[in-house]
Amino acid sequence: MTDQAPKFFTPSELSRRYDGKISTRTLANWRNRKEGPKYTKLGGKVLYRLSDVEAWEQKRTVNGTCEYRK
Fold first, then answer.
1. Among 4, 7, 18, 38, which is least packed by CB within 10 angstroms?
2. pTM score above 0.90
3. What is the pLDDT of residues 14-67, one digit of tens each?
4. Residue 38 neighbours by CB under 8 Å, 6+ apart
5. Within a domain: residue 25?
6. At 42, which helix (H) or strand (E)?
7. Cα separation of 53 and 18, whole Å?
């Protein structure tokens, strides 16, 4: 069993994960509105844990457009 530290992304790194289609400003807006993936603040820096990002992505995975309706 390996004891690996969790992977974290900065807002810039997370934006790059989505090829810049989600900007760092959008991420900041989502944090302000309590939307988007969970994040952690350490030493004044915003960090996104990979497992939280993947959980957020999974919640938004759908099989068809009909699933977008509320």
1. 4
2. no
3. 999 999 999 999 999 999 999 999 999 999 999 999 999 999 999 988 887 776
4. 48, 49, 52, 55, 56
5. yes
6. strand 40-42
7. 11
Residue 2 lies in a domain: no
22: domain range? Answer: 8-68
Q: How far apart are CA 36 and CA 5, in angstroms?
A: 23
Evaluate whether 27 touches 36 at the Cβ level (below 8 Å): yes
The rounded distance, in Å, linking the Cα atoms of 38 and 59 is 12
Domain count, the chain: 1
| 49 token code pair | 């844990």
For 12, the token pair is 């810039």
